[in-house]
Amino acid sequence: MNGAVGVPKITSLADLFAVAYRIEADAVERYELLADQMETHNNPELVAVFRDLCRAEKIHRDEIQRLAGDIDVVTHARQLPCWGRGDSPEEVDLGAAHYMMTPWHALQMALEGEKRALDFFTSVMETTEDSQVKRLAEEFAEEEAEHVNLVHRLLRRYPQPAASWSSDPDPPIAQE
Amino acid sequence: MSGLDTRLACKPADYKSDIKPIWCPGCGDYHVLMSFTRAFAELGLPPEQIVVVSGIGCSSRIPAYTNCYGFHGVHGRSLALAAGLKVTRPELTVVVASGDGDGYSIGGNHFLHACRRNIDMTYVVMDNRVYGMTKGQPSPTTEPDFDTALSPGGTGLRPFHPLVIALASGANFIARCFSGEPNATASVLVEAIRHPGFSFVEILSPCVTFRPDESEWKHLVHPAPVAATSDPGKAARRIMTDDGFNIGVLYRGDRKPYAPQVGRPSVELSELEKDFEL
Amino acid sequence: MADRQSVSIAIMGSGGAGALTAGNFLLEAASAAGWQGLLSRTVGPQIRGGEAAALLRLGTQPVECLSEKFDLVVGIDWLNAHRFGAEIQAGPQTLVISDPRGGELPPAIASAGARIFEVPFKNMAKAIPNGRANMIALGIAGRLLGLALDLLSKVIEKRLSDKGEDAIAASRAGISAGFDAAAGLDFGLRFAPPKAQSGRRWLVSGNEAAALGAVRGGIRFAAAYPITPATEILEWLAPNLAKMGGTLLQAEDELAAINMIIGASFGGTPALTATSGPGLSLMIEALGLATAAEMPIVVIDVMRSGPSTGIPTKSEQADLNIAVYGFHGDAPHLVVAPQSIGDCLFTTQWATYLAEALQTPAIVLSDQFIGQARAAIERPADVAFIGQRLKATDIAGAYKRYAAAVNGISPMAIPGTRGGQYTADGLTHTERGTPTSGEADHAAQLDKRRDKLERFNFGDHWATCEGTGDLAVITWGSLTGAAREGIEHAARDGVEASLLAPRLLSPVQPERFARALEGRKRALIVEQSHGAQFYRYLRAHYDLPDEVRVLNRPGPLPIRSSEVHRAITEWRS
User: Fold this and answer.
1) How confident is the model over A79-86, as a mean pLDDT?
2) What is the pLDDT of residues B117-173, one digit of tens each?
3) Chain B: residue whose CA lies nearest to C246
4) Whole-angstrom distance between the N-terminal and C-terminal Cα of chain C?
5) What is the pLDDT of residues C16-75, one digit of tens each?
6) Which CATH code of 3.90.105.10, 1.20.1260.10, 3.30.450.40, 3.40.47.10 fits the domain covering A13-87+99-157?
């Protein structure tokens, strides 16, 4: 997507908590969806990878909700104007999935997401005039940076797949 | 799919059924399903008040993946099913789902007349410029030089321009979305559903299996350069000259929807036979 | 030979003569006088100005078929009348009224040895300001029937009320002139004019009766695509459904029409469309969808001569195959056939009831003859059949739309019912409705859809069974009346025969059929089909007696009671 047009404006702590919550909640939803897809399409290794990623994002999400304290992040997130034109920063691109994908691919998707989230919080930190927002944004950015490192470490376990990774000797089936 | 849920459903998850889609991972339709459930949640409608009607094709599988009522009909006839349903049950929210083959080829005639009739419903066509379910034949929106087994070397035919046809036929709301922006798509769907009359939303939705080249779409789509118009002439010019990747609401009309009065009889049944009495 | 209990009249003319209008008015006046009657017509291919003949038969008993021989033939003119050929026959007893300047008598009439009485229609009409020849013809026919002049006048006043006083006056003058012209004319027949009838009388066509039957049965939505000879059903429904809180939607084609009614049915509204052969062919795919998804719908097929475009204005009984066997896959469903104009009301109402009860499509096989003919009949009795599908309400737990509950019928959740959400599907499905390719599910659903039909008690309405004798005349649809009359005439000649006319064609009723044929040693099958579709259907599904004869032919000439009579008497055991 060219340009992050229509990113919600962060004007308060509540906004930032809500956005951060939303980012993690979206990621939870997507990883769960991807895990289900991998299950339906008989790729058990990836089921495990996506369920792990989902679990991790759930922890992040719940942590944000805890940190937010009295702020009802769920409701506030729902009321925030949508991302509008752009992708949500950490949004995992479902279009990058493949039924024969390898863990390396899944982690690349995760890496993309974490990097975008990091960039987002960094930009909030750099542009906000609210000191509380700035401090929190910095915390979130640090958190995301750790996630980026974690994904890098995980990636070291998995070699880049061979060029023929997606080659399926069987043709597609016309179901109707 | 709980029968005892008495809360008003307003989370997207409440609109998803437990049935796992058969779509290939990477299919744009997963995002479209997400857009549907987000839109329904935004609208706050109980799932039992929504009916998703479809034809045949990958996109047409979507009804069963929602927790709403659904009708998976025969190829190309979803708009007719939906018309009969909506005029007799005007209080229901009717969303019709189709693909470029189901909707523009075999369903082409019904498309014209649905726009013309302007019954209040929302028509969502997931356009991937190919017949995916039957393994990769060209559809009316396929580029003329796209090589396939059924038309080697490409069809050589100019692709359909469904938004222009919708406008010419009388659709009351026309938009184009990209599946890769599910939130944006969801908000367009909300607007389309709320807009009275026949709303047409084309969603570019890449086919990962038969059109891997469509992974480029995320780089080609761009916001429409001007705001939506309610002037059909202006809309015609814009839509006829766009590059096929203008994203956004393009036209908002104000035609009165076709909605016959149904419900209460105005006479006793026995009155009708007076036609025949000597 | 003219039957003294009935009299047959033909009024013909061309080029805007108005023969059909005269026939309509004559029927109406005769009914008011107490006659029962049947009016059909035969026309040339032109849209306007073509040759046209009104064919009328009046009787003191219900009239359910026309005679081939006419007692009175009024020729306003004879232009192209030879095209009617054998459809309008005269005999030595026939009285023919002819305009000396009306062209040459058609050969079938000229050679019949009939009495010709000349009436200068053209000149007489000219002598009356705005005079019309057809009103003169009406006056003549009315006088010969013994109708009172003011009875004829009353019809004119009612039917021409929107044409203004001048038109009414001119028409009255025409009728008077005709009346006078027929003074002293001896019809040569002795018939007993009817006694004044009590009870309500109707003047109605089969198409109109079917439409009313549908509404009485609960239909509140119709989708319409015009096609001859079914369009009148839809045109009657358009305003009348609206009066009942329903609506009619004009479709862009039959493919849309059939799917629209399925959509309406899914939403809980009993729904119907009407078409003819070519339209039914288009609807077949969606009829299969309705069968598989278990959606109640009613489709009236007003059969016309086929195949393909065929003869749109003529009747035939050759859509039996497509109605019963035409769906791909194994897709049992309902097929019923009305037997007379009045029965169009009952059968369509019954079809609506059955479709809703069994959650399946019902095809009503009417035909052009009863669809477009008009009859003067006793008001049909009210019947209690009202469409009422089994609904799922108060749903607790997971809802299984297609789990066989009561004799294969499962409660249907209507959109709006909480907890009943399901996706109706033409794909083979599980009890829940989820697509499946498993053999157990497929077999279970096929069994369910077959069993629900087989276990249903259709009652005595399944067929008309009358009479005794070792010969069974087996027929269906609009030929029932002709068969009945043929049997009656054969009985007068001392030859007994019984009548068996199924109203329910699908699902078949082997036990009832066998009982109806008990003791019969011979069967005469009578049908209007070149390929003897009904005979082959009977052979496929039922045991027939050892000796079988088939009286079949295609349209356009309906099989007459005299032919059935002859077939019975000439076949001595």
Assistant:
1) 59
2) 999 999 999 999 999 999 999 999 999 999 999 999 999 999 999 999 999 999 999
3) B262
4) 27
5) 899 999 999 999 999 999 999 999 999 988 888 889 999 999 998 899 999 989 999 999
6) 1.20.1260.10
Query: Sign of the C-alpha dihedral, residues C164, C165, C166, C172?
Result: positive
Confidence of residue B2 (pLDDT cuts 50, 70, 90): very low
Q: How confident is the model at residue C406 (pLDDT cuts 50, 70, 90)?
A: confident
What's the pLDDT at B163? 97
DSSP calls for C337-361:
---SHHHHHHHHHHHHHHHHHHTSE
Inter-chain CB pairs, A–B, below 8 Å: 85
d(CA C64, CA C68): 13
B4 shares contact with chain C (CB less than 8 Å): yes
CA C57/CA B76 separation, integer angstroms: 48
**Is the Cα torsion angle B17, B22, B25, B26 positive or negative in sign?**
negative
Alpha-carbon span B208 to B220, nearest angstrom: 16
Contact B181 A1 (CB under 8 A): yes
Tokens encoding C318: 């050759």
Chain B hits for C434, CB-CB cut-off 8 Å, are 19, 64
Question: Smallest CA–CA separation between A34 and chain B, in Å?
Answer: 8
Q: How many CB pairs under 8 A join B and C?
A: 203
Spans of all domains in chain B: 23-275
Q: Where are the domains of chain A?
A: 13-87+99-157
Report CA A45 to chain centroid distance, whole Å: 20
Give Rg (Cα) of chain B.
20
Query: Among C188, C194, C197, C140, which Cα is nearest to C5's?
Result: C194
- Identify the structural domains of chain C with CATH numbers, from first to last: 6-181 (3.40.920.10), 203-378 (3.40.50.970), 462-569 (3.40.50.920)
Please give the DSSP secondary-structure letter assigned to residue A84: T
CATH superfamily for B23-275 is: Thiamin diphosphate (ThDP)-binding fold, Pyr/PP domains (3.40.50.970)
* Cβ distance of B26 and A2 shorter than 8 Å: no
| pTM for the predicted model, two decimal places | 0.94
Q: How far is C233 from chain B (nearest CA, A)?
A: 13
